[in-house]
Design brief:
Layout lengths: L8 H23 L7 H8 L3 H7 L3 H15 L14 H18 L1 H13 L1 H23 L4 H10 L2 H10 L4 H14 L2
């Protein structure tokens, strides 16, 4: 009778090593940004050798995909489809903006670092577009349902991280006040 080979314990160790590498990279991306994070920094923080790092992540793209996946797994971007059931347009908009702004608040440092680096790094920009593009597109469709062209344009401004940061960090509004300010502005643009 032949015995079937399974990785078992070795596979668990490989998965644990991969997880440690990704977590180390996400921490560094939060602190210094993906563009300033080096392989040596990630390997050191994860407690692995460079060759072990490369065994799991042969290129920057594979690491960035894993990191963005983990970040969204830990704290998913708000699910816009749940807002469809809110018939009142103002309430739907306020609920959506409130959820998006709460997400930004929880992820402010990582989001700021990644978006800053997305401006200078085509690869970081590609991963941001890949991961976040569909989520923002869905939010725009759901929240912008029944809005004029001008309202939809202002809605794009409203759901931007940079708008949230300006309102809450630079202007010292609470998330609730920022939500109400942008919801009023979007609806008044009609």
């Amino acid at each position: 009778m032949s015995r079937r080979y399974t990785l078992g314990k070795r596979a668990e160790q490989q998965a644990e090593t991969r997880r440690k590498i990704v977590e180390a990279a996400v921490d560094l991306h939060t602190q210094v940004g993906p563009a300033r994070t080096t392989i040596s920094m990630v390997a050191e923080r994860a407690g692995v050798q460079r060759h072990t790092f490369y065994a799991h992540f042969p290129d920057d793209r594979s690491l960035l995909l894993a990191c963005s996946g983990l970040a969204l797994e830990r704290d998913p971007f708000p699910e816009a489809s749940v807002w469809r059931g809110i018939a009142d347009r103002r309430e739907r908009l306020r609920t959506g903006l409130d959820a998006i702004y709460a997400y930004y608040e929880r992820n402010a440092q990582l989001t700021a670092s990644v978006l800053r680096d997305a401006e200078a790094s085509p690869l970081v920009g590609e991963i941001v577009a890949l991961r976040m593009g569909p989520l923002f597109a869905e939010a725009l469709v759901v929240l912008g349902d029944g809005m004029s062209e001008r309202q939809r344009a202002l809605l794009q401004v409203a759901i931007s991280y940079f708008t949230w940061r300006t309102l809450t960090r630079e202007s010292a509004l609470t998330n609730d006040a920022a939500t109400e300010t942008m919801a009023s502005a979007v609806l008044a643009a009609g």
